[in-house]
Design goal:
Layout: E1 2-3, E2 6-8, E3 24-27, H1 30-83, H2 89-98, H3 100-153, E4 161-173, E5 176-180, E6 188-197, E7 200-204, E8 208-213, E9 218-223, E10 227-229, E11 249-250, E12 256-258, E13 261-268, E14 271-277, H4 282-289, E15 292-293
Parallel strand pairs: 1-14, 2-4, 9-15
Antiparallel strand pairs: 3-8, 4-5, 4-6, 6-7, 7-8, 9-13, 10-12, 11-12, 13-14
Helix pairs in contact: 1-3
Length: 295
């Protein structure tokens, strides 16, 4: 048996390659990555120019803030001077009457300058939040565009669904497969695109498209062993909605523990390939491949 998206490291990691490499039907050409790298360099140049503009804008506002601070300081000093001795209320009132014009002007300028400092800080905070929101939206749109371009190159139809799979190194001992997780982070779990055409299952990551025939049949086996997954890839939280039933736990290090997982086993000319996936993808895999759970 071979593990789809797995590496047999029985004889060492240096010579190990993914078991599914022999099933590759399409790859993303190097020319695309070169084009993407050139585009990235242009975007970095634009980002540097934007940072320079923001720096100049920040410098102007810094000078403006210093000016407002100076006005506030002078105004407050004049205000306190016009009030006089605060220990004696009558003397304070008398001092204010004598310096009424200075008192009023100082009070107005103090209030305006302090309000100006407050407003400036609020404007900067709002602009920063808006800038980050726009940046996040821009990054998300760029990522979506990038993914669609990749999948288009790999011949993946837009109707293809997403399936989360588990990748793992493994060793073979006494004829048995032993999964070998990363000691710190557990097992890698990635979402890939999957579709079926002419009894062939196609699986695509962001680099290659793999094809494996379903003509000789496929079956699903449940593995009642817990695994630690590196990521949570779903929009809904791991302990809410339809995911609540699986009893998934989050570790202190931010990983996720599943109590069981499944193996889609596909026979191709006597060679069995096992695609590992978490329990919350079972219904999707069964619908896609027509495979049934073997008790």
């Amino acid at each position: 048996m071979k593990i789809f998206f797995g590496r047999n490291i029985t004889n060492g990691k240096k010579q190990a390659v993914l078991d599914c490499e022999e099933l590759v039907v399409r790859t993303v050409p190097e020319s695309y990555y070169e084009k993407l790298e050139s585009k990235t360099e242009m975007e970095e140049s634009e980002e540097k120019e934007e940072k320079r503009q923001n720096f100049r804008k920040g410098a102007v506002r810094f000078v403006y803030r210093i000016g407002l601070g100076a006005v506030a300081f002078i105004s407050l000093s004049c205000l306190l001077s016009s009030i006089g001795e605060v220990e004696d209320f009558q003397l304070m009132l008398s001092s204010i009457k004598e310096n009424l014009l200075v008192f009023l002007i100082s009070a107005v300028f103090s209030a305006l300058s302090l309000f100006g400092l407050y407003r400036l800080k609020k404007i900067e905070r709002n602009e920063e939040e808006k800038r980050w929101e726009e940046k996040e939206d821009e990054i998300e749109k760029e990522d979506e565009k990038y993914f669609e371009e990749i999948y288009s190159i790999l011949g993946v139809p837009s109707s293809a669904g997403k399936i989360e799979v588990i990748t793992s190194d493994y060793k073979v001992k006494n004829g048995n497969i032993q999964l070998k997780p990363n000691i710190m982070t557990g097992f890698m779990n990635d979402e890939i695109r999957a579709f079926v055409e002419k009894k062939t299952l196609f699986l695509a990551d962001l680099d290659k498209c793999y094809a494996i025939s379903l003509s000789e049949g496929a079956k699903i086996k449940k593995v009642s062993e817990s695994l630690i997954l590196m990521f949570w890839n779903k929009e809904q939280d791991y302990n809410q909605g339809r995911f609540e039933q699986f009893g998934i736990k989050k570790t202190m290090s931010g990983n996720y523990v599943i109590n069981e997982y499944y193996s889609l086993e596909i026979n191709v000319c006597g060679q069995v390939y096992s695609l590992l996936f978490p329990p919350y993808e079972l219904k999707k895999v069964m619908t896609l491949t027509g495979a049934k759970i073997e008790e």
